[in-house]
Design goal:
The complex is a heterodimer of chains A (253) and B (523). With 253 residues, chain A is of the alpha+beta class. Chain A is built from 7 helices and 9 strands, in the order E-H-E-E-H-E-E-H-E-E-H-E-H-E-H-H. Chain A has a 3-stranded mixed sheet with strand order 8-1-9. In chain A, a hairpin with a 5-residue loop joins strand 4 and strand 5 (82-84). Chain A starts with a strand and ends with a helix. Chain B has 2 domains: 34-339, Formate dehydrogenase/DMSO reductase domain (Formate dehydrogenase/DMSO reductase fold); 439-521, Alpha-Beta Complex (Cytochrome C3). A 3-stranded antiparallel sheet of chain B has the order 1-2-3. The chains are: A alpha+beta (253), B mainly alpha (523). Chains A and B meet through helix 1, helix 2, helix 3, strand 6 and helix 6 of A and helix 1, helix 2, helix 4, helix 7 and helix 9 of B.
Chain lengths: 253, 523
């Protein structure tokens, strides 16, 4: 199963039960503001233009953060969730830089900080065959858990049945190579602050194009360097020999 | 009575003491209270000057090491041998300082070794980490002859000389890889980095500009140390570097122009935005002015002129790295990052430590060809290791005093979160309850034989610690009023059949529906 979440913003009433359920299951302080993503609120209900936007990690199909992490602390699991292993992390924060949606957060207030983000309740629910806390408590079904392909089909059906209710776009279907968290909206996504110019190609491909050249660069430049040294050294030797033989001939004559 | 000699207080020593005191204080704050307390970094702007300056500039300016060793050992141009030692020393020091700076920036610095055993070959950062590690080892080996020679270890010295060529080749390879990879780091952020700096060619640009910056650093370092140590400048050699720099800068200018036009980004150059101004200043100072300076023979063949040109290149190089890491990332982040004084103090401490170590290394090691180990005329060092115990104690003591006073002030001014009074904790819990945005109370229409009005409140039916709306919605009660059918759908018949409210109000899970007055308030 490719676990996914469909966030239908036309259905969200902004009760914030999801944010509290998230804090409960992840042991986060309940008094932290839940209208903005932070290390203490891994999902947030942000209000723009009267629309409630449920912010959380998008769980990309090919996540930039997973490719960026030098120690493999971030993993795209077989379930679809992008998880984090604090034991491996060294705190370089390249994941925060590389995320095309700028979603991971950091414990700036702690001397020994961790990277924090939604992990789809991987350890606390997903692994046990349960659904994440946020989708479990949602009273309106605005945030719905399911298989990615099925949810995409459902999203398409919803748009088809109510073309007046939705803008004809499933955010996350193709953005950044596709994400496991997808959105439906009644207002154009750009007006809600969603980055709408994200490329459809997965982001790790950008850096992999460069990194995959390394063996070529190393072998070519290695040979070039050795070759240059050999040629130059040989010339110098020959020159010296010529000079020496000239000297000898002078002495002999 | 023994006379206690105090170190002479000169201007530069006073500056150093001030910088290091501030740096020490900032270090303590950084490691006891976290990055948030010491820096202006945030989720929106996770990399500041510790990455932009300490790492990107630091590594770039140490590039002279691999360029000069390649010129001497691979291209066999022996003229440059005279400057190869100070250059290797600069590079080695540079990398050590970069690694030191990295420990400040890493959230969990004690995990810095993790890439050695935890591999992710798809990560640019992983590759940078490995190459920096390997190249620092190479630099250590290239630097070791200075120490071996100083202490007269003949055999190891001969061995080191025999493996110098493979070492230099490895050094060039590792350098090529990670100098360019520092640019590759930003290839993954096409949407975040401003189009004046973003290009898929960033690795190439970083590599070439590092050669430029590294060579400028060699000129700068040779000129300043010749003045500081009063030795003859290897001037003919440096003037040749000026010529090489012209080529490098032209190449850089050409590729910058090509990539900008290919990305249709030329329009941004003169659009008057903050980015365009920073870009123009960077190109002008770092590329165009030094090209003009170095092209004029009268300036290039003049010590001061050459020095001036290299300073321009250095400033331009520093601007370039800061523009990529800070200016160019600002707009998309939505925040205005400017470093705190603590970030600046730590960076300044590291840079000044570099100058001090270089000074002592060149004093005690055979760095410069004609250098003889100084015997009698040694100036009193700032912290005279082993020479005068009392002097060391005096300096350290005053440092500690200043830092402890500063810390005491800092800690006393911040309320301790651990000692929050009981009332405040209660109010925090109340905040929690209100955090859940519950609908207004629902007043049910009063039926004919009803003993009193019923008002339903969500507050008493939701556990804020474990909100579970789905217990009731939408299986038992619809949410929207038109669907819920107001009070009509709730009636006592169903409640007695343990449906609707009766599902929980059954006398077991909660009070029974027989307790009329619990819900029906008499008027």
């Amino acid at each position: 199963m490719n676990a996914a979440i469909l966030n239908d913003m036309t259905k969200c009433i902004g009760c914030k039960a999801c944010t509290l359920a998230c804090k409960e299951i992840n042991g986060l302080p309940k008094d932290a503001p839940s209208d903005v993503l932070s290390s203490k609120s891994w999902t947030a209900i942000e209000q723009k233009k009267g629309i409630n936007i449920k912010r959380q990690c998008m769980h990309c199909n090919e996540p930039a953060c997973v490719s960026a992490c030098p120690v493999g602390a971030l993993t795209k699991t077989e379930t679809g969730a992008v998880t984090y292993d604090a034991k491996k992390c060294m705190g370089c924060r390249y994941c925060l830089i590389s995320c095309p949606f700028s979603l991971p957060t950091y414990e700036w207030d702690k001397p020994l900080p961790k990277v924090t983000k939604c992990i789809l309740c991987y350890d606390n629910a997903l692994k046990k065959g349960e659904q994440p806390a946020c989708t479990r408590v949602c009273p309106t079904g605005a945030t719905k858990f399911g298989d990615r392909d099925e949810l995409i089909q459902e999203a398409k059906d919803r748009i088809a049945k109510n073309p007046d209710r939705y803008v004809n776009h499933i955010y996350g279907l193709t953005e950044a190579g596709g994400t496991s968290v997808i959105y439906l909206s009644s207002v154009p996504f750009a007006e809600l602050g969603f980055p709408v110019d994200r490329q459809d190609e997965a982001y790790p491909k950008l850096t992999w194009k460069v990194l995959s050249q390394i063996p070529n660069i190393v072998s070519t430049s290695g040979i070039l360097l050795l070759g240059t040294w050999w040629i130059i050294n040989r010339r110098i030797k020959l020159e010296n020999n010529e000079n020496n033989s000239d000297d000898e001939s002078v002495i002999n004559s | 009575m023994k006379e206690i000699k105090l170190p002479k207080i000169t201007f530069w020593r006073a500056v150093l003491v001030i910088i290091w005191t501030m740096g020490l204080y900032a270090t303590i704050i950084r490691f006891t209270k976290g990055l948030g307390a010491a820096t202006n970094l945030s989720d929106q702007f996770p990399w500041g000057i510790w990455i932009g300056f300490d790492i990107l500039v630091g590594v770039g300016l140490a590039a002279g090491g691999f360029v000069i060793t390649a010129i001497v050992y691979i291209f066999n141009i022996k003229d440059f041998k005279s400057i190869s030692r100070p250059t290797v020393l600069t590079a080695f020091l540079g990398y050590l300082l970069v690694i030191g700076a990295l420990l400040f920036d890493l959230g969990l610095p004690y995990n810095v070794w993790h890439p050695i055993i935890m591999w992710n070959p798809h990560s640019v950062m992983f590759e940078v980490g490995w190459c920096v590690m390997l190249y620092t080892t190479v630099l250590f080996l290239e630097f070791s002859p200075l120490v071996l020679e100083r202490f007269g270890f003949k055999k190891p010295l001969a061995f080191m000389r025999s493996i110098i060529l493979p070492l230099v080749i490895l050094g060039v390879l590792f350098s090529t890889l990670h100098q360019s990879s520092l640019g590759t780091l930003y290839v993954i952020v096409p949407d975040k980095l401003h189009p004046l700096w973003y290009t898929g060619m960033l690795p190439l640009l970083f590599f070439i500009s590092a050669i430029g910056g590294g060579l400028a650093m060699v000129i700068f370092e040779s000129y300043t140390s010749s003045r500081a140590f009063g030795k003859e400048l290897e001037f003919s050699v440096l003037a040749q570097l000026g010529r090489i720099l012209v080529v490098v800068l032209f190449l850089l200018l050409f590729i910058r122009y090509k990539t900008l036009s290919a990305n249709h980004a030329l329009q941004y150059i003169f659009d008057g935005s903050k980015e365009s101004i920073y870009f123009l200043v960077e190109i002008l100072i770092g590329i165009i002015i030094p090209i003009i300076l170095f092209l004029i023979p009268r300036i290039r063949n003049n010590k001061a002129g050459l020095f001036l040109g290299s300073v321009f290149v250095l400033i331009g190089f520093i601007m370039n790295r800061l523009n990529v890491s800070i200016t160019g990332m600002a707009r998309s982040s939505g925040v205005n990052y400017f470093p705190t004084w603590m970030e600046i103090a730590i960076t300044a401490s590291i840079v000044s430590a570099g100058f001090v170590i270089f000074r002592y290394a060149s004093k005690y090691l055979p760095v410069f060809p004609e250098h003889k180990p100084a015997a009698g005329k040694v100036e009193a060092p700032l912290i005279a290791a082993g020479r005068s115990g009392s002097r060391v104690i005096w300096v350290l003591g005053s440092l500690l005093l200043i830092v402890s006073v500063g810390l005491a002030l800092e800690f006393s001014s911040i309320p301790k979160t651990a000692d929050v009074p009981e009332e405040q904790i209660e109010s925090i819990n109340k905040v929690t309850a209100t955090e859940l945005e519950l609908p207004a109370p629902i007043e049910f229409e009063k039926g004919e034989d009803s003993p009193g009005l019923v008002t339903f409140t969500h507050e008493t039916h939701v556990d804020p610690d474990n909100p579970n709306c789905t217990g009731c919605h939408t299986s038992m009660f619809k949410i929207k009023p038109e669907k819920a059918g107001a009070a009509g759908s709730v009636n006592m018949e169903k409640l007695y059949e343990q449906e609707q409210c009766g599902k929980c109000h059954n006398g077991n899970d909660s009070f029974s529906v027989d307790e009329c007055e619990f819900c029906h308030y008499a008027e």
